[in-house]
Every structure is written in C-alpha cells, then in structure tokens.
C-alpha cells in the first residue's frame, strides 16, 4: 500500500488520522532500525531470530526460544533488556524450582510492639522482561506458576492479587525435548506464548565474526535505544495498523483449516490431534501488523501471513500418534495449510 493511499484527503478528520499514522509508522520504523543495529552488534548470524523476537515484543506477547545450549539465547534476552531499557530479571529453571521462587511469598514479621503481620516479598516475576532459562527443566507445577502472569499480567499469592509492571514480557528458552531431564510444557501454557522461535546454528561467516568479536580483549556491549514508554507506544501503534480484507480472510482460512473438526484437508483430519484456537488468529493478526511496521510499511500483506504462520501455529497444534509414527511433522502440515496462499 502506498503512502498516497493515506494522504490524498488530509483535510477531513479521517485524512488527518491517516496522515498521522503514516508519520508515526515512519518514525517507529527508523527507531526499530536502530534497535536492530544495536542488537546486531552483539548477536551474530541470528537475523530471523532477532526479527521474530522483536515482532513478539511489538505485539505485546511472549516468546519461546528453542535450541540447543550455546546459541546465544540468553545473551539475546539480556541484550533486548538493555536496548529497550527494560527492568529485566532471569530465572534458571531446575527440577527443584518452586512456584514461590518465581512469584514471591509472604513472610510473618513481628514489629516493635509485638504485633505480627504478613509481608509480601515479590519474586523475580515482578519485572518488565523475565527470562525463564531452560523452562522445560522446571516441574509442571512450577511451569504453571507463569500461566496467570503471562495471560493476566498479575499473580495471586495467598489469595491476594498483585499486578505486574508494564510492559511485561516473558522470553523463555527451551532445550529440545529429546534431551534428558526435561518436562514438556502443557498445552495451556504453550498457547500463552505468542511465537515459538527456533534458534539454529549460525552460518560460517557469522560464526567467524562471532569468534573474532567475542574472544578479544574487548567485547561490545549493548546500548539503550528505546525506553519502556516508547515500547508501550509502539505496541499501541501496531494495533492501529490497518489490515486488508484479503489478509484477514487468509488468516482465518489458514487457522481454521488447521482444526480437524473444520478442515477440508484430509491430511489435517487424519493426522492432527488438535488444532490452533482463536488465540492463534489473534496472534497472527498482530504479528503481521508488527512485521509491516518493522519494514516501514503501512499495512501487512499475504506474504507476511505466509512467513509468520509457522512460528505462530507450530506450538498450537499436535500430531496424532499415527502421524508421528509415520514420520509426519507439523511443518509438513503447516506447509499444506499455506499452499493455497503462496
């Protein structure tokens, strides 16, 4: 969509709103280029991972980063906290980690007059950017402690609700499930993650650059580019980006086709145990809007939908036992869903 589509009638209120939207998108696009540049000085060879993580933050969501140890997942989260000026904290998930270790707890105190009262001590979840490192090493009970925080931005301890700071994002890292000592995340928690982002090994050129940059006497440190207030404003702007009917129809078609009870595809009916819910449609809509803003565009396209469907849907679907036994993968199914839109 061209800029002129928004500015050919700027005399009326609607034209003024469109003109302001164009200016806001251009300003934010320039700021995000600086953000990507700042992250790229520290994180090497993970452009797609960085882009999808930034899309998640712009959409106000949480991301699940999946990859083997040593691929700079932790470093990426720390860098984003610095670049956006967020109050960030880190949790190292282990099998003996308890919910109170994340949420906080109440302690009984006695004052000088001998009166006793409970005082709440906040846990590390009370921050703006929470990194849950190796989240699938925590027990299911501890994993579920994050459910309310991720969905409602508040936690309940001893019957008392405590609000979390704004913005609030969880960036969790996960080891591949075939590794020992891991617990698969429950479906309800997986659905709370905006995207599942696969982190692969960097290519030869990026790994060479990383080798030279990180083993010298001095290492580059990330610098702040945006503030939490600017991130909140950017998230509000993303929701103002218009979406064409064709893009909306494509999102609905893809998501609904992934549900065995609604799909016309025989592969989905026979090989998918359960498909994506309405939250997947909402996530995909916000993702394509954020992707458009990242590129300085004023509206998303079908190409954005095709590109972002896999990370949005992959963790919101499950294969049947028969399909897994036959070697079918979710990427195969998602590719079939996207075929009519390529």
UniProtKB/TrEMBL annotation:
Domain ChlI/MoxR AAA lid span(s) in chain numbering: 268-334
Pfam families assigned to the protein according to its UniProt record, in alphabetical order: AAA_3, AAA_lid_2
Residue ranges constituting the ATPase AAA-3 domain according to the UniProt record: 62-195
Entry keywords, A to Z: Hydrolase
Coiled-coil spans in chain: none
GO molecular function terms noted in the UniProt entry: ATP binding; ATP hydrolysis activity
UniProt enzyme class: hydrolase
EC number: 3.6.3.-
Protein name: MoxR-like ATPase
Species whose genome carries this gene: Limibacillus halophilus
Lineage of source species: Bacteria, Pseudomonadati, Pseudomonadota, Alphaproteobacteria, Rhodospirillales
């Amino acid at each position: 969509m061209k800029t002129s589509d928004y500015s050919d009638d700027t005399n009326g209120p609607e034209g003024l709103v469109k003109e302001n939207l164009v200016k806001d998108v251009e300003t934010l696009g320039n700021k995000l280029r600086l953000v990507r540049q700042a992250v790229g000085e520290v994180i090497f060879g993970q452009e797609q991972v960085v882009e999808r993580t930034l899309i998640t933050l712009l959409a106000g969501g949480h991301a699940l980063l999946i990859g083997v140890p040593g691929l700079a997942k932790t470093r990426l989260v720390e860098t984003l906290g610095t670049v956006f000026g967020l109050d960030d904290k880190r949790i190292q998930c282990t099998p003996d980690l308890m919910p109170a270790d994340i949420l906080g707890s109440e302690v009984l105190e006695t004052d000088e007059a001998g009166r006793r009262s409970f005082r709440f001590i906040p846990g590390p979840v009370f921050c703006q950017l929470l990194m849950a490192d190796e989240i699938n090493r925590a027990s299911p009970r501890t994993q579920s402690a994050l459910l309310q925080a991720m969905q409602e931005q508040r936690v309940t301890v001893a019957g008392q609700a405590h609000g979390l700071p704004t913005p609030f994002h969880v960036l969790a890292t996960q080891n591949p499930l075939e590794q020992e000592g891991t617990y698969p995340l429950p479906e309800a928690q997986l659905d709370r993650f905006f995207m599942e982002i696969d982190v692969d090994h960097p290519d030869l050129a990026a790994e060479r650059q990383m080798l030279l940059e990180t083993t010298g006497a001095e290492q580059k440190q990330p610098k702040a580019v945006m503030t939490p207030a600017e991130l909140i404003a950017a998230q509000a702007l993303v929701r103002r980006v218009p979406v064409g009917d064709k893009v909306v129809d494509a999102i609905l078609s893809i998501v609904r086709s992934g549900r065995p009870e609604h799909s016309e595809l025989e592969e989905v009916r026979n090989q998918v145990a359960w498909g994506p819910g309405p939250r997947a449609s909402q996530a995909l809509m916000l993702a394509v809007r954020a992707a458009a803003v990242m590129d300085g565009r004023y509206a998303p396209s079908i190409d954005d939908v095709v590109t972002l469907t896999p990370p949005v849907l992959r963790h919101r679907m499950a294969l049947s036992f028969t399909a897994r036994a036959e070697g079918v993968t979710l990427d195969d199914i998602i590719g079939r869903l996207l075929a009519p839109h390529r």
